[in-house]
């Protein structure tokens, strides 16, 4: 395989069509274009009513105890589905331990979070609403809040017509998952995988060749160019405690198995060019530097400046088109809506 890849790299530099076809064939084994329809998810039939409800919930800060934080506060769809902060700022101005990943295409990740501790989006969305977490709420208070607003009660009834109690924490999670499943962003790379030769620049194609040849694709593969599989951050060389703080042992916290210490999910790389800063610690702001760190830490390789630029050009071809999202008008609160809890920043 490696020999063939090398051959294809040479053919590519010569700019032959055969090289382009071979590269597409090799890429076809490793990656996949985004689906053209909304992907199906486990135990949750996606319907237009669920999507609309989920969109309202996504933008609703009243799901947080303080009334300040919505999903959109940290996963801002106007800025790549993340918050562009080193690590997130949540309830009571607390600084979270990890960088916020994008929600874009997250439905296609094998599991959610840097350590994969939530098996799907339904499981994931409940986490920020637990006491002390980003939105620091309780399931009871969330359900009371939703039940206090007749429009929400009506919308849950339409979205979950077969349920005796449509307004529930579980159904809230399902509606949010349905909305998130629509956040799919087809990129130039998809157009190219689907046969459009012009969709990638020569530099991006050369970057893709390096990405495959040097072994980046052995971890970052599949439809999200990552998002599945767990590997040590620092497989070959430790990237240092600034990038890999000693107290976050990654997947170890999920499995309690020593062998999983400092293992993290291979990051999904779609839209990576618009989701700086990088790594779970959020310490690297420049994509080129992140690529160089990866080459050293994961592969023990040093890239030339030109090689890193080419890989960056390939990664830029993963920046996709946002689906149009019209900001919803939310149900208005009533006299029985729980009041926001007053919280002060920690001194
Ligand atoms: C205060 C900021 C904040 C808020 C509010 C927040 N998140 Fe997150 N989100 C994060 C952080 C930080 C992580 C990564 C945590 C980790 O890996 O341990 C994350 C992870 C995720 C992931 C996993 C993505 C992946 O690639 O693994 C999804 C999906 C997600 N959040 C959706 C939501 C939804 C939906 C809401 C609203 C219910 C929400 N988040 C509220 C900060 C936030
Ligand atoms: C052995 C598996 C492995 C290899 C090989 C690998 N990576 Fe990674 N990559 C990871 C893991 C795991 C992470 C998450 C690191 C963390 O915990 O922050 C990651 C993170 C990244 C990030 C940061 C993404 C973000 O959203 O913060 C980029 C960019 C990246 N890799 C690019 C590359 C490139 C380019 C190559 C080849 C030079 C490469 N990777 C090789 C496993 C790998």
TrEMBL record:
Annotated keywords: Heme, Iron, Metal-binding, Oxidoreductase, Periplasm, Peroxidase, Signal
Main location: periplasm
Cleaved signal peptide residues: 1-20
Highest taxon above the source species: Bacteria
Alphabetical list of Pfam families matching this protein: CCP_MauG
Molecular function per GO: peroxidase activity
Domain Cytochrome c residue range list: 49-157, 202-319
Subcellular location: Periplasm
Name this protein carries in UniProt: Cytochrome-c peroxidase
């Amino acid at each position: 395989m490696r020999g063939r890849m090398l051959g294809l790299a040479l053919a590519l530099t010569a700019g032959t069509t055969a090289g382009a076809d071979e590269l597409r064939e090799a890429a076809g084994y490793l990656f996949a274009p985004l689906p053209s329809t909304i992907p199906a998810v486990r135990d949750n039939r996606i319907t237009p009513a669920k999507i609309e409800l989920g969109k309202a919930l996504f933008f609703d800060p009243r799901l947080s105890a303080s009334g300040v934080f919505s999903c959109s506060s940290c996963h801002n769809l106007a800025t790549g589905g993340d918050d562009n902060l080193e690590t997130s700022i949540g309830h009571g101005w607390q600084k979270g331990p990890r960088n916020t990943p994008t929600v874009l295409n997250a439905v296609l990740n094998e599991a959610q979070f840097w350590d994969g501790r939530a098996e799907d989006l339904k499981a994931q969305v409940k986490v920020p609403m637990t006491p002390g977490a980003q939105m620091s709420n309780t399931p009871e208070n969330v359900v009371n809040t939703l039940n206090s607003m007749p429009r929400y009660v009506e919308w849950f009834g339409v979205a979950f017509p077969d349920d005796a109690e449509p307004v529930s924490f579980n159904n809230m999670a399902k509606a949010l998952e349905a909305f998130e499943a629509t956040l799919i962003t087809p990129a130039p790379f998809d157009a190219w995988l689907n046969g459009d030769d012009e969709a990638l620049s020569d530099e991006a194609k050369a970057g893709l060749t390096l990405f495959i040849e040097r072994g980046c694709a052995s971890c970052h593969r599949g439809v999200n160019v990552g998002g599945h599989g767990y590997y040590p951050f620092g497989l070959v060389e430790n990237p240092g405690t600034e990038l890999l703080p000693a107290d976050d042992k990654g997947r170890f916290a999920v499995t309690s198995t020593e062998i999983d210490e400092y293992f993290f999910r291979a990051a999904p790389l779609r839209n990576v060019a618009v989701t700086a800063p990088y790594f779970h610690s959020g310490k690297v702001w420049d994509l080129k530097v992140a690529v160089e760190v990866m080459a050293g830490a994961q592969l023990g390789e040093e890239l030339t400046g030109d090689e890193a630029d080419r890989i960056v050009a390939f990664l830029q071809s993963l920046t996709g088109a946002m689906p149009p999202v019209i900001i919803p008008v939310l149900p208005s609160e009533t006299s029985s809506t729980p009041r926001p809890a007053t919280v002060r920043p920690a001194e």
